């Protein structure tokens, strides 16, 4: 399917690896020019090179997207863009009773206030031009809380509330905002969580992985390529009627009728 976005420009943050990279790859395959970001310059440049091989222009900005300085660098390189995919690392696991105010502020900054700041910076231009697409990478924890990821549950719920109201305000101007909710995907983040299970329960990494995969009706982890394909469709010319949705990509893990 031609996604109808060849020649458009996109920013994808936190995109040197994992789900962000999956989104950047699918957009590049659809002919979208990219500004990508991550903190580590080496992996970011390697990803940028791989994306350029798909025939699109790619600007790589090494910066921490959760800081005002990092966002300023990315936004300066971005200029006028049609598509924004927001992403950042997830907060660490822990216990509800241990988190301090500073822990919550860090999580809110990374997973709620950063995507909101990026939307506030880039959506006015999309509105002026009458077309735009925003996809936020959040988490299935918005629907099914994950006990040890309370910081993520909290911050992402805040972002979800902001999007629910804002998506309806910008839709009349041709701009859509939707959230993509990953369940367990095969990335470094999943490895880190598996290491935690392995250490806590005395399992090998393989046993920890098999145990988590067994909780998913699809009986496997998702892939970054599958995730990216969905993201690119939400950014496509065909997705203008999809507004304010929270779409789980979780192999059926969230057990609900609707
Ligand atoms: P990942 O494989 O660890 O990749 C994270 C990417 O984000 C890397 O490119 C990393 O590069 C970049 N990054 C992290 N913090 C950043 C920052 N402050 N500024 C700029 N770039 C940053 O993670 P993932 O699995 O793709 O996860 C992406 C998001 O989805 C996370 O928020 C995660 O919590 C959420 N999620 C993932 C899963 C899953 O199963 N994978 C499930 C639910 C939710 P640098 O380290 O070099 O900056």
Overview of this protein structure:
The protein has 258 residues and is α/β, with parallel strands linked by helices. The chain has 8 helices and 7 strands, in the order E-H-E-H-E-H-E-H-E-H-E-H-H-H-E. It has a 7-stranded parallel beta sheet, sandwiched between helices. Helix 1 crosses helix 8, helix 4 packs parallel to helix 5 and helix 6 crosses helix 7. It is globular, with a radius of gyration of 18 Å. The model has no long low-confidence stretch (mean pLDDT 97). The structure holds NADP nicotinamide-adenine-dinucleotide phosphate. NADP nicotinamide-adenine-dinucleotide phosphate binds next to helix 1, strand 2 and helix 6.
Task: Compose a concise summary of this entry.
With 258 residues, the protein is an alpha/beta fold. 46% of the residues lie in helices and 14% in strands.
């Amino acid at each position: 399917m031609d996604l109808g976005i060849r020649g458009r420009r996109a920013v994808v943050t936190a995109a040197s690896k994992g789900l962000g990279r999956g989104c950047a790859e699918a957009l590049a395959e659809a002919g979208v020019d990219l500004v990508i970001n991550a903190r580590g310059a080496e992996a970011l440049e390697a990803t940028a090179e791989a994306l350029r091989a798909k025939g699109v222009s790619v600007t790589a900005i090494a910066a921490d997207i959760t800081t005002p300085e990092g966002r300023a660098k990315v936004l300066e390189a971005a200029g006028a863009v049609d598509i924004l995919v927001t992403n950042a690392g997830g907060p660490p696991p822990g216990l509800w009773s241990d988190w301090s105010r500073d822990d919550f502020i860090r999580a809110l900054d990374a997973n709620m206030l950063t995507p909101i700041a990026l939307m506030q910076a880039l959506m006015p231009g999309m509105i002026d031009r009458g077309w735009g697409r925003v996809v936020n990478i959040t988490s299935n924890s918005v629907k099914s809380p994950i006990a040890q990821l309370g910081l993520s549950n909290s911050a992402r719920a805040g972002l979800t509330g902001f999007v629910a109201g804002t998506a309806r305000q910008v839709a009349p101007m041709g701009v859509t905002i939707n959230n993509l909710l990953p369940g367990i995907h095969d990335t470094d983040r999943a490895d880190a969580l598996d290491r935690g299970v392995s250490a806590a329960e005395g399992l090998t990494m393989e046993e920890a992985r098999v145990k988590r995969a067994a909780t998913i009706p699809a009986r496997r982890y998702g892939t970054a390529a599958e995730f990216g394909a969905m993201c690119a469709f939400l950014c496509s010319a065909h997705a203008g009627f999809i507004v304010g949705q929270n779409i789980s990509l979780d192999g059926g893990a969230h057990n609900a009728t609707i």
